[in-house]
Amino acid sequence: MREKETTIYLGPQHPGITGNMMVKLKVTGDTIVKAETHIGYLHRAFEKLMEVRYWMQCFPIVCRICVPEPDPNEENLARAIEEIEGREVPERAKYIRVLVLELSRLATYLLWMGGQSGSMGLYTMPQWTVGDRDYILDLFEELTGGRVYHMYIWAGGVRRDLPEGFTDRVLRVMDYLEQRLKDYDNLLFNNALFYKRAKGVGVIPKEKALEWGVVGAPLRGCGIKHDVRIDEPYEVYDKLDFIVPTYEGGDVWARAMVRRMEFEQSISIVRQVIEKMPSGDFYNKVPNPLNWKVPPGEAYVKTESARGEFGYYVVSDGSMKPRRVHVRGPAYVHGISLLERVLEGANIADVSFIMNSLGTCPPEMER
User: Fold this and answer.
1) Is the pLDDT of residue 19 over 60?
2) Structural domain boundaries of the chain?
3) In the CATH scheme, what is the code of domain 44-365?
4) How crowded is the C-beta side of 6, counted as CA atoms within 13 Å?
């Protein structure tokens, strides 16, 4: 007897969905036959909004493109403007930018650990990691005035210098997180149930990964070594010593192990930045924001966010507003075409589990 095909709508209210989106599933029994992503109406037309804003007014907009990780957006926009202008950035500002980007990466990975664990019913982990993430948000609040949205990295450098004693507080948080990793390992990464749930689930074929546009941890979890910080260094990443972890398998487990190793690498990078950071200026001041005209030109820059390669294409026509801004984010690929592919044949219980492992971010898809 042929099993009946049923349509199920998962999200946006479901706690396993990574934001305001929905996945339409056709299932037979508990096996997914077809998946279709509906990204909903969360944040609309950010790229077009920037075309009617002054250059400086665009920085509060780009933060919203990915709520959990706003800083790569700021850095990309700032660096694109600097490339068009030919504006030099003080060396100290570059180090501070890397410090902010790596703290942002750590905060994002903590959020991912909680989401990945919660989607399999292990609710102790999100209690821990969301609480530990607050220590990083405390640092952001002290540095920028905001816990989530910062508007701190902008064209010419950063908005303000580091507060007195700030680096000591950063190092204390790094020491804490390094010790905390032992607890994360015992509860999640060395957990036999997590291994059983994650191994062989949500597999991305290695031979298809590049063709499908996969980036970040999902790509490195296929055994492919690619990281913008190493391959096309920006800011001061070429002056820092770190490795790009890879893992074979292309499944949820491989992606988890890549992120676990990258967490340690980011702690090391933060310590190196603090050790090597020079004194000096932190900002090469731009003109009056209300009368700031960026010369005609175009630039494409990219950074390695916690979710993968993140690019900005910016065009100026010489006026006080951008002519065009286009964002190339990893979540658009991971959350639509990739998610729809890897969900086929998966169990319905693994939908949010797989989705979390891909690093989807609905506001970036629906920008």
Assistant:
1) yes
2) 44-365
3) 1.10.645.10
4) 10
